[in-house]
Amino acid sequence: MDRARGVGFTKTGLYSVVRHPRYTGIIITTIGLTVMVLTLHGDPQVTLLWLTQILGYVILARYEESFLEKRYGERFRQYRQDVPFMFPLKCPKKIPETLFTITIAVVVSLVFLVFPFYLIRIH
Fold it and tell me: What DSSP assignment string belongs to 90-116?
C-alpha cells in the first residue's frame, strides 16, 4: 500500500478474475449492443467499430500495466502471471496476452459477420 496516498494494489473480487474488470464489463455490454444492432439493422460496419473499441481498450490496458509494473514491480508481475488480462481465460504461455486477447476479439467479430442475424429479427 502506498501510505502517502492511501492507495493500494487490489487483488480481490473481480480483480482476482481479470486484471481489467471495467474494460471486460464494457466489452460484454458492447457485445450485447452489437448483437442488437446487427439483429435490428444488419449493418456489419458495427462489427468493425466493436473491434476497434477492443483494440483501444487493449492499448489503454497495456499503458496502465506499464505504470503498475513500475510502481509495484515484482508484486504486479506475479499478479499479471496469476490473473488473466481481459477475458477470464488463461492465455497459452507461448502466445503474448495482447495477441491472445485480440485473437479472441477477431474470432467474435467473425462470428458477428457470418451469423445470420436476419433470421432472429422480430417483424
Answer: PPPTTS-HHHHHHHHHHHHHHHHHHS-
